[in-house]
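batch_manifest entry 22 of 60
target: Ferrous iron transport protein A
source organism: Cryobacterium psychrophilum
requested by: lab member K.T.
priority: normal
notes from requester: please return tokens only, no post-processing; we will run our own comparison against the previous entry in this batch. if the run fails, retry once and flag.
--- input ---
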Amino acid sequence: MSDFLAGAELGTRVVVRTRIDGGYTDALGYLRFVGAASCRVETKRGLVTLALADVVAAKEVPPPPAPRARRLPE
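--- output ---
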């Protein structure tokens, strides 16, 4: 999985699944840094640092959908 992250351009929108105690968690956002032991993903909640040793899956994802227009009452 770190092969994908090492080759991905910074700024690519990604989802990265990592092992945590009791299961897995996903980080969805923009790839900001990839080093020898970790990567950083900018999510809606802020910058998250992930250990590459804990990564079990990673892939590029499409841009978020455009905001929907508000419906006005008739």
